[in-house]
Amino acid sequence: MDILEGLNEKQIEAVTTTEGYVRVIAGAGSGKTRALASRFAYLVNDLGIMPGHILCVTFTNKSAREMAMRIHRLTGDNDTGYINTFHGFCVSVLQEDSFAVSYPKNFLVIDNSDIDEMLAIIYEEMGLTLRDMPFNKARDMIEMKKCVWEPEYYKDMIAMPLQVLYERYHTATTVQDIIFYGYLYQEKKCFALDYNDLIKFTLYIFEENEEIRLKWQKLLEYIMLDEFQDIDPLQYKLMEALCGYHNNLFIVGDPDQTIYTWRGANIRFLLDFDKKFPNVKTILMNDNYRSSPEILAAANSLIAKNKNRFNKNLIAHRPSGPKVTCFMGKTAGEEADRVAKEIIELHKKGVPYKDITLLYRAHYVTRNLEEKLLKKKIPYTIYSGTQFFGRMEIKDALCYLRMIVSQDDMAFRRIINKPKRNIGQRRMEFLTNYASENGCTLFEALRKNVEEPTLKRTGAADFIELIDTFAKDSEGKPVSEVLSAILDESGYEKMLRTEGSQERLDNLAELKQSVFEYETTCGEETNIVHYLEHAALFSSMDTGEGQDKVKLMTVHTAKGLEFPYVFICGMNEGIFPSRKTRTVNGMEEERRLAFVAMTRAEKALYITEAGGANLDGSPRYPSRFILDIDRDKLEFDSPVDEQLMKETMVYVGRSTAFLQEDKDETTMEAGTRVRHPVFGPGTIVEVDGSAHAYLIKFDSMPTMRQISFHARLFKL
Ligand SMILES: Nc1ncnc2c1ncn2[C@@H]1O[C@H](COP(=O)(O)OP(=O)(O)OP(=O)(O)O)[C@@H](O)[C@H]1O
Question: What digits encode the pLDDT tens for the residues 678-691?
């Protein structure tokens, strides 16, 4: 088989230029993944290179698997060498050479849920609570320490005996240090390595041990890196360490698809590649084989609005299709209705459901879509996350409502200890036994035994009062009001806030919105029982049999994929771009994300949005990205409300003025003494990376202030 067959001239150049440093700057859908796979096959089949001497690094495990499959098809060889993510590759290195850092071969690789388990042990041992620091903040803090504040931490981990780490942990005085050293201690105790450690340890071995480094350098005759636009500094360093012997490095990236700068990715690595390495050959690939000219015209017009950009336009090669369609609904329900209607139309025309994909920026957007899909019996499957009514917080909230009206055991079990009321396994066993002996519900068992010593020092009495009061008072009240009140008064929302689970809080806000919509569309006489019946329909409904299903996923999940028909839903200010966008660069990244979403579509693209109100009650405007696309590239399905467009422009103009210019944000650590030009000296108590701000206790003030990273602070 001729591996070069069907490739265009640029792709052939990329495939056959095997020696030296090669950079491919490729547009979306220009066949870079195809070129990469063909290059691997060319090296193996045509040049006779052993697959085990090629390293091909992809961005996710999923793309590594896909790449391995493509290469397997091309080479027919089962040995596909090192096709892996950076982390996966480091695992291979450490499995062979971890003795160099005195770690066993069977070390443990840990993810976020393992980290949380370790944190739980530390909190328990040291009497910390989530109020001291929620887990997500603790994880961020550990990451910041490992990557920015204490980048040499791994030397301690490697060199310090376990006992010394233990002492550091137990003698630490600040919450941060207790957690950090507790975590390092826990890690070392079970020879566990998180994603940062994998790369740091591998780099350390390469730096310290010339022999091992040379062994890997010599082994990897050809190195190829995909999605280079999203490479971070540590991965870059690793790449540098690996390619130094044969000097055969091939990188592919698209500056317009950088969507991970928030995780440390740096586009400069791609743009400055030719300055860092000798005799770099650059190949530009802008021929797009994926999308219709109409879709590309709209996507090009959007991305052109980014100022900080390597200028290039995609050239279409696919047959012409319909213009990009824009639905502007009055409410999110209407938007979802239009989407469902269009899906039915497409299906009638013979388009299988599996060719249709709904993309969105934020998970909570799926609620309206799912309701409509279920109602219209359109089979679907969610690729990122769980169905809306199956999400933990939604089930919990509905169980609180069930406690008000039916007090059934299932609901009781679900929420009795959420938030913590000190009713754990042992007390539940007691209640279960009592209930079965006396033929009553668990709630009645609790009521009858509330004075018993077993239930002393628990939140039992408060819980009973909460449920009784709501049961008595909620008659005749709107369900939405009751739901908001019970989530507040039970402490459930507070628990989520303390955990820092913004996504879950957003989902709850969306649930409240759904209840509110239900009330307004159903007339006066709705009550909790009616609503629960309505919700049960969604939570128990089957989403359809078989494989022919509409796909729902976030834009991040869709990276690297392609679909014949794409709907980008919830294209509103505050959703897409996300309301968390605070800086000019952040906004450009959101625009790139929108560009990635648009360029997933092959035959037809729909952009949909809705009026009404946001989760925080503010009025909802169409996304600035709709305005960014030249009007003549869009087909609106109903006359455009010009007044709304004008108002949106004013809103966008105002909000753009608030975006901060990005400075080099090397943040200061908690504990640092600083001087503010007006408030005077103070101490940084906490660094909140997501809010781009410090929490500072100024000497002159009784309470703390949150101060933006951009404020002029002088280190003392
Ligand atoms: N030379 C070619 N002729 C025809 N079709 C091609 C050619 N090269 C690639 N394609 C097709 O174009 C589509 C896009 O290719 P591929 O997925 O490799 O692009 P990509 O550059 O990795 O995309 P992205 O960066 O947007 O994820 C695929 O369906 C692929 O089969």
Answer: 889 999 988 776 56
179: closest CA among 169, 193, 188, 187? 169
Ligand 1 and 67: CB distance under 6 A: no
- Which protein residue has the closest C-alpha to ligand 1 atom 7? 31
Query: Residue ranges for the binding site for ATP?
Result: 26-33
- Separation CA 541–CA 388 (nearest Å): 12
Q: Are 249 and 56 in contact (CB under 8 A)?
A: no
Q: Of all atoms in ligand 1, which is nearest to the CA of residue 227?
A: 25
For residues 663 and 705, the answer to whether their CB atoms sit within 8 Å is no
For ligand 1, say whether the CB of 366 is within 6 Å of any of its atoms: no
pLDDT tens for 80-104 read: 678 888 988 999 999 899 999 999 8
DSSP string, 391-412: SHHHHHHHHHHHHHHT--HHHH
ipTM of the complex: 0.96
Which stretches of the chain score pLDDT less than 50?
Answer: none
pTM across the whole model = 0.78
SS3 labels along 433-473: HHHHHHCCCHHHHHHHHCCCHHHCCCCHHHHHHHHHHHHHH
User: Contacts by 653-660 with C-beta closer than 8 Å and gap 24+?
Assistant: 655/573, 656/587, 659/581, 659/582, 659/583, 659/584, 659/586, 659/587, 660/582, 660/583, 660/584, 660/692, 660/708, 660/710
Asked if 600 is an active-site residue, the reply is yes
